[in-house]
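USER: Write out one fold?

ASSISTANT:
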Amino acid sequence: MKTTLRAKLLQHLASKKKADEGFTLIELLVVIIIIGILAAIALPSFLNQANRARQTEAVTNIGAINRGQQAYVLDEANFSRYIGGLGVGIRVESDNYEFGDDPDAAAANVGQILGLAADGTIAFNDGLGGDPDDVQYQSGALTYAAPVAGREIQLRGYAGATYLLTETGTQEVTSTTLLCEEDQAGQLPQDQPTFTVDPDGLVTDTDCGPAATEQ
């Protein structure tokens, strides 16, 4: 056998033997450590995205309530006391949130909506007091999306409002909406938005609170 051919055959046999040996323990440990580091980096990002997906439920439903109130006030000249009266078809109780009249789900009357009176006060009126003008619901309405208490997953709370204001320039009365997001997850009770109302019962300024941000 020629020397060149013999050398190639020996090289081929040597490489095949090495390939059959598999990975060493050190090599496996290095791979496991690398996988662990990558998982530690990726897991917080994954959990954060999962929480954002859950919080989308609150943002979507509060937006639907606000839009429903805008349509309702056009027909009724005041705002609805109940989410069910808006016909927006949302679940007022879910695994993540309860939608109602209190910034703490544990104390909320689920499905109820707070009214904004012409003097800027916020309260619930069941409509059974004999007030034909329904004063408490003439200037605006407010609903909370409060995270369900007692869960390991910490979510941010939200508040939404629809209110009447005067358009600058045209002086036309129109309705607009407000969405507030708590700055920290798991903060209960949430901040209560405040409204500045002029003598005509129209909102001139809003504030989500010191620990919440307007979205």
Observations:
- Strands lie at 97-100, 114-116, 122-123, 140-147, 158-166, 173-182, 194-197, 203-207, 212-214.
- The radius of gyration is 30 Å.
- Residues 25-76 form the longest helix (52 residues).
- The longest strand covers residues 173-182.
